[in-house]
Design brief:
It comes from Roseovarius albus. By secondary structure, the protein is an all-alpha fold. It contains eleven helices and no strands.
């Protein structure tokens, strides 16, 4: 075990991983999402795709104790349940694709997904009608594939919620619950497939310390009356992901 810890501490780029996960925690606590959008593009420079997905979902589970209790009473749990059920069925498809695609391809997909999300929101794309059960199943299903493939568990559902007419407090709570459920599903699939190695688990534990701390800071800063600021903070997070995620910055 001591040797594993030493290897993790000697990992090239560890300081950047700590900085990224720390900033991501602040954003996650404030907006309800953003961890993967910030961390995955940076981690993809230093870690193989499967390890990135494992680390981001493992650390996501850590944040549950900080965010889920408050979100539970504010969320539309029935709606989140439908989304999570659909994602449960499709996560294995994303993980299967992850094993078949090379690292650079996955990183380009991360960038494209983040870019499309940002463009749709900033240009003002909105919908006004209520999404029925079939629509929720579709959104959840696509989110499951994307989450299993790239570790970006949030963009599909984030775009779905921010483009709608819901109150910001409910959007944040729904997103928190869905991301928590999807993290559990992805970790369970990775464990069953034997993808998570002990070294990956140690790295996730090391990163979980700054992540949990900054998540609490972000949550304390959240003010539901500042809806405009909330939306633009979310857009800024996605914009950072687009820039840092370009496979031009690393191998």
């Amino acid at each position: 075990m001591l040797e594993l810890i030493t290897d993790v501490l000697a990992l090239p780029g560890l300081i950047w991983l700590i900085v990224a996960i720390g900033f991501a925690g602040i954003v996650r606590g404030f907006t309800g999402f953003g961890t993967a959008l910030i961390f995955v593009p940076v981690a993809g420079i230093f870690l193989p795709p499967e390890q990135v997905v494992a680390v981001i979902t493992l650390t996501g589970i850590v944040s549950m104790s900080a965010l889920v209790p408050r979100a539970w009473g504010q969320a539309d749990r029935k709606e989140v349940g439908v989304l999570a059920f659909a994602a449960l069925l499709t996560v294995p498809v994303g993980i299967m694709l992850l094993r078949q695609l090379d690292q650079v391809t996955v990183r380009w997909m991360v960038t494209v997904i983040a870019s499309v999300t940002l463009a749709a929101l900033i240009t003002g794309w909105r919908y006004s009608r209520k999404i029925d059960a079939k629509g929720l199943l579709g959104v959840g299903g696509v989110a499951g594939v994307v989450g299993g493939l790239t570790g970006l568990t949030g963009p599909i559902v984030i775009m779905f919620y921010l483009a709608g007419q819901g109150a910001v407090k409910t959007i944040r709570a729904n997103t928190i619950l869905f991301l928590a459920a999807l993290d559990i599903v992805i970790v369970a699939n990775l464990l069953l497939s034997g993808t998570i190695e002990l070294g990956t688990l140690v790295l996730a534990i090391v990163l979980a310390v700054p992540y949990f701390t900054t998540t609490l800071i972000g949550q304390a800063a959240f003010d539901p009356s500042q809806e405009k600021f909330y939306r633009w903070a979310a857009y800024a997070v996605i914009g950072v992901a687009v820039l840092t995620g370009l496979p031009l910055w690393g191998v």
